[in-house]
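Pilot study result, target chain (882 residues):
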Amino acid sequence: MTATDAVPTAARDGVERRAAEERRGLGLGTRIFLITALLIVLAVGGAVAYTAFTAGRIARDQAAEALRASHEVFTTSRTEREGALLRDASIFASDPGVAIYLAEAIPAGDRASILDQLGERRADFEFDFAAVLDPDGRLVARTDRPAGGGEELEESDLVAQALEEYVAAGLWREGDALYEATVVPIDPGGLLAGFLVTGFDLGLDRVMGNDVAAVIESGGALAIAASTLGLDRERLLASALRARPGPYRRAVEEGETVGGVELDLDGEPWIALFAPLADAAGDPVGASAVLVSLDRELAPFRAIQRALLAAGLAAVLLAFALSFGFARRVLAPIRRLGAAAAAARDGDYDQEIPTGRGDEVGSLARAFDHLLSDLREKRDMEAYVAELSRTLPDAGAVQPLEPTVRPAVRERLALLGAEFRDRARLGSGEPGEVIEGLGRDLRRLRELAVARGGRVEAVAGHRAWVSFRGSARCQRALATAADLLAAGGRSLNAPAVAIAEGPAEAGTVGENGSARPALAGPPVQQLESLVREAGPGDIVLDRRVHDELAEAFARSGLALVERRGVITPQPLYLVRPDEAAQVTSDLASPTPMTAVGPRRGDRETLSQIRPGSVVGGRFEILSLLGMGGMGMVFKARDRELDDLVALKMLRADRGVGAEEVERLKEELKLARRITHPNVLRTYDLGMVDGTPFISMEYVRGVTLRYLLDQTDRLPYSAGLRLSRQLCHGLAAAHAVGVVHRDIKPENLILEPNGNAKLMDFGIARLLRRPDPDRTPEGMVVGTPHYLAPEQLRGEEATPRSDIYSAGVVLYELFTGELPFRAQSAREAVMAAIEQEPTPPSTYWPEIPGDLERALLTCLEKDPDGRFAGAPDLLRRLDALRA
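Predicted structure:
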C-alpha cells in the first residue's frame, strides 16, 4: 500500500473511531437525568439567593401596596363618616320642635335658650361642640364657648360653602385641633332662620391593621393632631417628620399622594404614605399618614426563606432519584415515534400512534399520525387509480369497442341501436374502403356515446348497440342519436337509429376460452325490431322511451304520434334529428359532459374540427376528448409553447356576442388567478370563425364520474383524500371571488398520481345567464342532481351553494348513491327542494358519525344551516382519519 492510499484509510478509521465513541457516549436519557439534576440544584440555589436578596424589596412593595389600599379605605371611611354626620345634623335641625325653637331664639339673640336646647340634644347626637349661626353666617351661640357671640364666620370655607350651597361638610381646623364639622340649615316652614354647626374631634382608627396619623403644621414645625400610634410613637413620628418634612410638603403644597416614604422610628424601619387633608373648599389643612412597620412585613418572607432553603435541600436530594426515571418516561413516546418513523421509511404506514397526550410530544404524535394517515390515503388513492387506469385507453387512442369483462348484473338501461346501412353495400373502389368507412363511423359513435356516459356493448357487422345507465339515460341516448345524425341529416347514407328502454341483464359469456360481452332482456328484443322500422336518418323510440321523455317533448311543443310498425306490431314513435336536438338542448345530465346536443347552427362549424386541424393558427388538434352542451373539448398542442392543452370549443348558439365575450374575459381573469394544485388552470380565451374557445390545462386522467361508474363508491381512505382535495380547490376559487356553480363528479378529474383537480370555472354561469344578478325564472344552470335548492329556484348562487353541491358529490363518493331518488330531471328538482336527504348510513351502515353529520350539514335546505365556506368543511374532514 502506498502513502497516498494510507491517507483515505486513516480518515476512514478516524470516522469509524469517532462513530464508535459516539455510540459509547452518554445516552439521551442519561444526559437528561444529569441536566435535570443540575438544573434543580441551580434553580433551588438561585431561588434561595434571589429570595434573600429581594425579600426586603418585596416587603417594601407589598407594604406600599397595603398602604395604598389602606389609604383608599381611610378616604372612603372619612367620606362615609361625613355623610353620616351630615345626616344626623339634618335630622337634628329638621326636628320641628328644635327648628321652631331655634328660629324664634336666633333673631332675638337669646344665647342662653339656644345653649339650653343644644345641651339637651348633645347626649342624643354626641357632638363635641355645636353652634348656631344667623342667616348671614354670624355666630349666635356656641357650646364650647358659652360667652362668645357675634363673630363673623362667613369667611370660613365651611360656612362660606353652606351660605352658597345651603349645606356643607368637611374638616374644620381651629388652632392645633382638627374637627369633622357639618353645617345644615334651620328652616322651619321653608324660611331660612339660620344654620346649625356640629363638630366632632377628628377620630382615627387603624385601617386594615395599619396605623394612621393626622399631621399639621403648628408654629413653623410639624405636629401630630391625632393618631393611632400612642404617645411614644407619636413623639418619634413627629421628630422623624421634622427631620424629613419633604413628603409632608409635597402632599400639602402640591396636593400629591406620596408613597414609599421610609422613616426611622428609634431604629425601627417604617414605611408611610402621605396624602393631603383638605377642608370643604379643598384648601389643605394638613396631611394624613398611613404607616406600617417593615419588620412586621418582612417576618413572613423570612419564614418563607427558611422554609425554601429546607425544601431546596430536600429537592436536591430527591432530584437524583427522580430525574432518571423522569427522563426514561419522557423518552418512551419519542422512542415509539422513532420506531414508527423507521417503519414508515420502509413503507409500513399502518402504525398505531398514541395521540392522547396534551404536551409537545402529543402534538408531535398527532402531527406524525396525520402524516401517516395522509400517506395511507395517498397510497390507497394511487393504488386505486393505478388499478383503474389499467382499463383506460392509451392517450389519443380509440377505446376498444368491447367492454372489459364484468360480472352479470340486472339493471334498467336505455339501449341505442345504430345501423350503418350504406356500409352493407360493397362499392366498386379499392378493397377495404367499406371496412375503413365503417371503422370511422364506429369510432365516431363511440366518441359521442362515451361523452354522454354511454358504453358500446356490441358490434355486429354494420350494426352497433350502445347502453346508457343511471339517471337521464333516455335523454342521453336521444342526444347521442341527434349528434350522430347531425352531419348526414336524412340522406340515404345516414344511419338508422332506434332506442329502447327497460330492465336487462348485462355480463359476459364464455366461448373458446375467452369472454364476450352479452346483453339479454326486453330492450334487446325490442331494439331488433325497432331498427328494422327505422329509415336512414330516422330515430325510432319505443313506448317506454317516449313516456320517459314526454315532459321534455311537451316543453318543446312537440307531440309525437304513436304508430304501428310494418314488421312489428309494437307501438313506436318517429323523431327527426332536429327535433331530438331541440328536446335535449336544455336537459342536464350527470354524465362526463353535460348531456346537451349541439344545435344545427354550430354543429357544422364544430364538425370541421378534426385531428390534424389547426385552430387559431396556434393549436394543433390531436384528438376529441368529449362533447357536451357547451360544445366540444379537444386535446391540442400549443405550437407557440410546445405544450399540451385542452381546448373547449364553445357553441355559437349560446348567444356569445361582443358583450358576452367581454364578460367572459372578465370571468377568465378571475379564473386565471386560481393557482392551486387542486384546480385545473384556465389559460386564455380566443375566437375562430366566430366560435369562442377556451384553452385550459390538459390532464391525462379520469373523472370522478368514471371512478364511480366503475366501483359505485370509493374506499374510505381514498374518499377522504379526494374530499379534502375538492375542498382545497373550492376554497382557492372562493378566495378570489369565483363561485363554481356546477360542482359534480364530471368536473373533478384525477391525475394518475391520485391528485384531483376541479374543472370548468365560471363558464356555464356567464354563457347561460344573461342577467348577471339573477338566473332567469325557470332556467336551471348545471346538473339538477347536484344543484342547491336556491339554484333550482332560480336564485343567485353563493359559496354556500357550492358547499351543497360538494356535499352531494361527497355523499355519492362515500355511499355510491345520490341523496335523492329521481328518474328524471324534474323529479331531481322537486326532491332537492321538498324532500329530506336519505341518511348516508342507509347505504353505508359503517359510515363514521362525524362524516355523516358533515354530509347532512352540507345538504341543509337553508344556506345558513350549511358550512359557511370550504375551509369550515375542510376542518371537519381533517378531523377524520383513515
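One observation from the pilot: The longest strand covers residues 496-511. A full batch analysis is planned for the follow-on phase.
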